[in-house]
Amino acid sequence: MNHQDIVAQLVEILTPLAEGRATAIDAGTELTGELALDSLKVMDLMLAVEDQFDISVPINALANVRTVGDLASTIGKTLGESA
Amino acid sequence: MKANPKLQAVRAVRQELAELGIDPFGVQIERIISPTEGLIDGRSTILAGTNNYLGLTFDPDCIAAARNALETAGTGTTGSRMANGSYAGHRELELEFARYFGKRDAIVFSTGYQANLGMISALAGPDDIVMIDADSHASIYDGCRLSGANTLRFRHNDPEDLAKRLRRLGSGAENALIVVEGVYSMLGDRAPLREFVDVKNRFGATLMLDEAHSLGVLGDRGRGLAEEAGVLDDVDYVVGTFSKSLGNTGGFCVSDSAEMDVLRYASRPYVFTASLPPATIAATRQALHTLADARHLRQRLRDNAEHLHAGLGALGFRLGAPPNAVVAVLLGDKLQALRFWDHLLKHGVYVNLMVPPATPNGESLLRCSISAAHTPEQIDAILAAFGSWTGAKE
User: Which domains does chain A have, with CATH numbers?
Assistant: First the structure.
């Protein structure tokens, strides 16, 4: 799965969580800034992401994740490691 | 000095509260009268948010033990347990905890927060995996952070979700440390502990259980949810606090592990903190002795919780969990909850206001914690204060 595919799947997961706060979600969209996801929503997002991609993403791996693209990279790296 | 940008979010919340003229996080009890009553804003107030489940803070035997220790051993130890801060009483309390739980050994920490911090960070390191319930207390999250371990969350009170996530780890699952709480402090809901034990055994993992809100409350001898569920032998580490049912300050961990004496020295929150004062140790030893046989207090606590729970239900409030020592009234809207909290205080009832992100599902809630020391009349007065609210109940 390439980076763009992961971003596309993330956009699908994020759209209901964003509650219309961003007109278009893409790789550059900030999770806590533009989408205004609080820490709890980010945690809920991660539970959904882990299930969607069937991977484990530790909380501590999210420290430098700011945008949808950052998250996609973290997922891609985890998928690569578990492949 | 310029304003610290890191404090901006907290400053904004403080400002919002100041504009409303309501400060639920700055309450001062001007005079404490009893385990269930204090003077707030010059008004006699029923305390229904103190976690003083058995009402032991004014127990005459505990006070006498503390007074005697204060006079014979001084005000403080002025040192770490690892240096000059281990008096005979500290170790005796540990052995008493171990005997009470039927476990091999115990470690006493200076707070309940530090017990979680100290145990998780001593048990797990950067290459390890800790699996925690999504609704875990901050001390569990902070313990994971201090450990540097890879921390994975599972859905709240969902053993099958835990199993699914352990399965993803493959052979790594048997080295995972699972952390759950007996009773969750926000809503008062209990963990499905037997099911969690089944999952833990199936994967060969290690289970740590925080009984902060269930010690003294659940189980025939008050040993918490693990005793009530009959799985005490299957829980590898039981952690708890002195600051609820035991009416004091401190924390502990009991375990059958042969490594407890090594663990304590690997635990930075244990090593780099002054130990508990002699009076605290003495009063806690007395309270622990009282706790084991306090079936009458547990019964009174249950009666009070059921009384309050039924009354609030009859008033049409949405409640967080079946009757328990924690009874949470769910209110979606934060501003509404804030005004309701203030209304209760002005009607002589103190409860805890809880707002996101500390609460699950983005709910705001008014959290009551019930004590065996509440009288039926006080429970009626709490209900009357809730009943006098004319605002929305959702």
Answer: 3-82 (1.10.1200.10)
Which CATH class, in words, describes the domain spanning B60-292? alpha beta
* Tens-place pLDDT, residues B10-58: 898 889 889 989 999 999 999 999 999 999 999 999 999 999 999 999 9
Here the ipTM equals: 0.89
Residue B308 forms contact with A (CB below 8 Å): no
SS3 content of chain A, % helix, strand, coil (to 5): 60, 0, 35
CA distances, B253 to each of B138, B148, B215, B237, B337 (Å):
17, 21, 12, 7, 36
Query: Inter-chain contact B153–A59, Cβ cutoff 8 Å?
Result: yes
CA atoms within 13 A on the CB side of B8: 3
Cβ distance A47 to B155 less than 8 Å, yes or no, reads yes
Rg, Å, chain B Cα set: 21
CATH assignment, B5-54+295-387: 3.90.1150.10
Domain spans of chain B, in order of start: 5-54+295-387, 60-292
Whether pTM exceeds 0.90: yes
| Structural contact between residues B14 and B318, judged by C-beta atoms closer than 8 angstroms | no
**Cα separation of B86 and B266, whole Å?**
17
What single-letter amino acid sits at A36?
A
